[in-house]
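Dear all,

This email documents one entry for the complex benchmark we are building for the journal club exercise. For each entry we list the sequence lines for every component of the assembly. Then comes the predicted three-dimensional structure of the complex as a token string, followed by one or two observations. Please use this as the template for your own entries, and keep the labels exactly as they appear.
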Amino acid sequence: MAPKAKKQKEVVQDERFQAIVLTDSFETRFMPLTSEKPRCLLPLANVPLIEYTLEFLANADVNEVYLICSSHGEKVQQYIEKSKWAANTSPFKVHTILSLESRSVGDAMRDLDNRGLITGDFLLISGDVVTNIDFNKVKKFHKAKKQEDKEHIVTMVLSQASPIHRTRSQIDPSTFILDRKTDRCIYYQQIPPVDGEKSSINIDPELLEDVEDEMVVRNDLIDCHVDICSPHVPQIFQENFDYQLLRNDFVKGVLTSDLLKKTIYAYISDSSEYAARVESWTTYDAISQDILARWCYPLVPDSNFLEGNSYGYEFNNIYKEDKVILAQSSKVKSSTAIGSNSSVGDGSIITKSVIGRNCKIGKNVRIYNSYVWDDAIIEDNCVLDHSIVAGSAKISADSTLQPGVVVGYRVVVGRGKVIPAFTRIVESPIVKPDEFERESSFESEDEDEGEATGHDNEQKHSKQIPSVNVKDNSLIGEDGVGVIYFSGDENDGESDSEGDIPEPSSGILYQIKSLNISDDSIASVSTARSKKKSRSGASKRRLSSTSAVSTEYEGGAFSEDEDDFVKEAVATLDRAIENNHDLDTALLELNTLRMSINVSYHEVRKATSYALVARIGHFVATGTLDVKAAFEKVFQKWCLLFKRQVFDDEDKVDLLQLLQSECASLDVAYGGKVFFMIVNFLYNQDIVEEENIYTWWDSKESSASDKLLAVRELTAKLVEWLRDAEEESDDEE
Amino acid sequence: MEFHAVVLCGAGHSLGPFSKIRSTGQTKALLPVANRPMIEYVLDWCEKAFFPRITVVCDSESKEEIEFALGNYKKNKQVQEAADEETESANKALDNGSAYIDVIALDNKSTGEIFQYIVKKEISPPCLHFAVLPCDFITDLPPQVLIEAYRNKEDSDLGMLVHYRNSLDIEDKKSKIFPKNYTVYSDIDDGNCRLLDIYTKEDLDFHKSLQLRVQMSWRYPNAVISSKLLNSSIFFGSLIDISRILNEEPERFSDSYFSGRSLTKVIRDLARRSWRHSEMKSTVAFNIVPNCAQFFRINNLQVWMEANRYFMKLQAMKRGQAQQTSKDKVSANVGADSTVGENTSLGEKTNVKRTIIGSGCSIGKRVKLTGSLVLDNVIIEDDVQLENCIIGRSVTIRSKSKLINCNVESSFEVVKGTQSKGDTLLSLTLEGLEEEISFDESSGTDSDDGSESDFSDEDIDDGYVSNSDGLFAY
């Protein structure tokens, strides 16, 4: 690590202060609403979430902001381009970076490192943070710690709360073990929720050795993922390509690493300051209420930091925009915000709720603690309790939404329906795999890696078989539009947690809990996460478990990871050929890759033949070498790879078949010639035997298409010759 | 709020070879610190606390000795009180009269069992509250501080355990002197603390990790783990509350439960009640001796030595520079930071620095004693040099010996011209199993002398007397 230390010195304080905003959460907790809009553009108190983050950055004296966009990246980009942040008056320069390939924070950080944008210490923040902390204090703290401790690479901003604080993540609570004196983070561990299983936080005694005196176990901190990172952080992600999560992989990894010896400090913000992250329905609800109750001043609706907003503040935390039409007999009670052009009919009561713009609330409607987004229509006599009605949805007259209901965009709920608690309705089945994949990167990745347990299977069902999302007329009525969105074993989740949760005295908290229970995608995410943790933690175990899991993949349903492998393997081989690695290294790399992604040797052969043949094709096509020279250059050395990839006759036949099809994809002019040379070479090298060649020659696959036939034309002579030779030897006997 | 003080006199396993674990040893409670048996410090402290009744628990072997020592103590007290009366300095002690002290012998009991005894009222209880005290602590912390803390504890708390930080000047690099235990506690409202858990080094070694329970961090989200806190073994408890708890769960708190456990473990189990259960249960409060106070427990040799020096330092400061003039160059020189007991004679040109010499000793000429502890009735002949040594009772050190960092068991005879460094010199035991074995003491201060562990004093002849570093010993 010595060169690194040097580097650190070179990075003298840059005047520019950069902020990296991760607009994607890489989670699925806001499904189904996030299938349409990314999380950071969901409205929180009628303002897109990202605005809160950017507002914070504006106050934090940041000079440059890079928004890393992956899911719905274009939408974020469009939004930013139109917003005030892109204008000349913006306090900082905004750049959007499309990183569509990223599936996790880790990927995003690696992408960041590849792009080489980072010039000094930077602020890493996610696009869903609502906070009013005085960032200059954090910067000071960071600088001071950096002076003391050269190995300091990250300052995490944590804010103090009670363990079951409403804005604290109840989904994956985590404990920080800090040095009491210096606030150095000694250990980090996620723990089961308050009513979860009994387990323990296991700290390696070695980590405790350099603790001077006392340390604290903090389980009362809100971690809103605001970090000041040194430029080493993306590098460390790069070096540890298995790091996915910022906290559970990176922080834990760095802290427990014997080699790295880097330190992470925690800045614990004043309890008078507000910091929270909208990461679940629970926190969405809690933070919305906090904004209405002015806890996060100056982030309140009437500061109108979004252009075109015109909220005014009235007694009892009521916020109204222009042109709100309230019927004489309607009642707007405390903690409510209503957007412009919305109207509320006679006798309706709205309390602790947020109503978007252009909403039409009918007569005698009751809205308690609910969130109605722009352009929604709530007809007469509806009752909404702890629900979310997304944009342009319509709740027809006399309907009731029970707690925890989420009504998606443009859904129409029919007349007189009672939507049972925790139901989530979407307009149309979510089948677009692209979008879904992006949002559900966790699950999909987990499946890739072969951790598909029962739960994930169910997840997969709802994704792959859209018929599950049936239109249920009995639920939303004949005149309704929409289907129920399932994300898994909803009912199980509910019954499991019901009753176990100690009921907090406050009513709203209870409701939050219920919302939380309902949102079983949350649970699935956290289980997926914990699995992930165990996987990345113990690669050994992963290896041993793969054999058991691999049987599940025989069906070929998961061709995706095979593709991944081929891509990776080809890249590996290309590198090897390019840099003239030795054979063993290349083999080792291939093998490691094979085991880590858990594919058969068939895939390895496929990748190898592709890489080698493509290489020849490359040489010939660019005119560097002629066919023969190209073949020799590539195959003299690398052909031996196959030796370690074929084991029985079947494998050898398979290899020939693969090579044939690869050569068939070459230019017709020389494809056959190359193939002939390959077969001949393999035969001479004893990698394949006569019998294998015969079997292959006679197999249907080898003559399945014109192209294949054309390619093997030349080889016919070889086969003939072999057969003759055999007969001759037979004759001699 | 009256307390029944119970002073537990342990065997002193870490004070070998001077404690009762060797046949020549003395009861731990009676080992002297600055020429007073250490239990006297405890009794003094109890007196300041006005405990109406003090019970000293020891094994039957040492009962007599302790009773005798207590008799002495009381006698001295009376004499002193009489003197005090004249000078009108401390009338309170007189008003109150001394506490009723009795001695009980309980053999082969774990401290847990003694605890059970106390709670089950088998040691006659005139008071509602009790205080368990070790026999080896010395502090300048007024007992009222702790009593007040106990009074202010939450009503739900059963008792209060006191921890302290090492305040002596002892370097403890590898945690050899003080056990590295992890104490988990949490600050609760209005300045009180609550004990949550204690993990010993053995627990950690066994599990290869510090296993903090998740339930605990839910209940106490801001718990502090300390590895520097030491257990004072001072525990204040409420008799009624604790016996109620024990009666609630008779299967759990059975006789066998107590017999296998130390007091600390029993208290730890009580403390774990604070977070183990879904509802809050009464538990144990926690107090840390404030940093400004001196507190130490003489539970190993290093602390014993350092405690003696501490008193010498105090004495030196008290006397100041006034007395240091030694008019006579021929006579023995005793520094202001040294004490010499009664009936002890010092030879010519003998120099005593930072050393405590017991009573009835006879010290020869040109003897150099530095930073050592010499117990009673020791004979030291001419030209002996001792540095940082503990010399047991009735030891004879023949002339021209030079001992550095040595511990010499009582009744041992150090032969003429012995040179030794960092050894423990043991005498023949009655069992005859060990024969003048000297083993490496490997104390924290001199860890580099392991090569001399097989050093046998007989092998040395006079020619090596002048070797000070021991390099030529072989």
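Observations: Chain B has eleven helices and 33 strands. Residues 89-96, 431-474 of chain B have pLDDT under 50 and may be disordered.
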